[in-house]
Design brief:
The chain is of the alpha+beta class. The chain contains five helices and three strands; from the N terminus they run ααβααββα. The longest helix has 21 residues, at 94-114. The model has no long low-confidence stretch (mean pLDDT 93).
């Protein structure tokens, strides 16, 4: 592996910090994954994201919307219906989902072999 300068390493670490700030934590990627099947209402997202509280889901959706991954649509009818869907920008995470899944499978297999 080629040696990197301190500036290059710092730049890469800063970029990783930025990525983890936006999609890190227990729930953000799970919420995004739940919306990959199409638009959903709040309670539908909460049902498929087993264990997430309404308060945490609300905060996660607000942050995902603020960062351009989720679009919130309010349908003015009675009762008011709010739906969430992924934006085109969320598609940029496709390779990341695949890489994380592959790495997770490899890691799980490694841990099982070592036990």
């Amino acid at each position: 592996m080629a040696e990197r300068s301190t500036a290059e390493c710092t730049s890469k670490l800063n970029a990783i910090d930025d990525a983890l700030y936006v999609i890190g934590g227990k729930w953000k990627l799970r919420v995004i994954a739940s919306l990959r099947e199409g638009h959903k209402r709040f309670n539908e997202i909460q049902r498929v994201s087993v264990g997430i509280s309404a308060r945490v889901l609300s905060n996660e959706l607000k942050e995902l919307e603020m960062n351009g991954f989720v679009k919130r649509t309010v349908h003015a009818q009675t009762p008011v219906v709010v739906e969430y869907q992924l934006t085109d920008y969320a598609d940029t995470l496709g390779d990341l989902f695949l890489a994380l899944a592959e790495w997770g499978e490899m890691h799980r297999d490694k841990i099982r072999r070592e036990r």
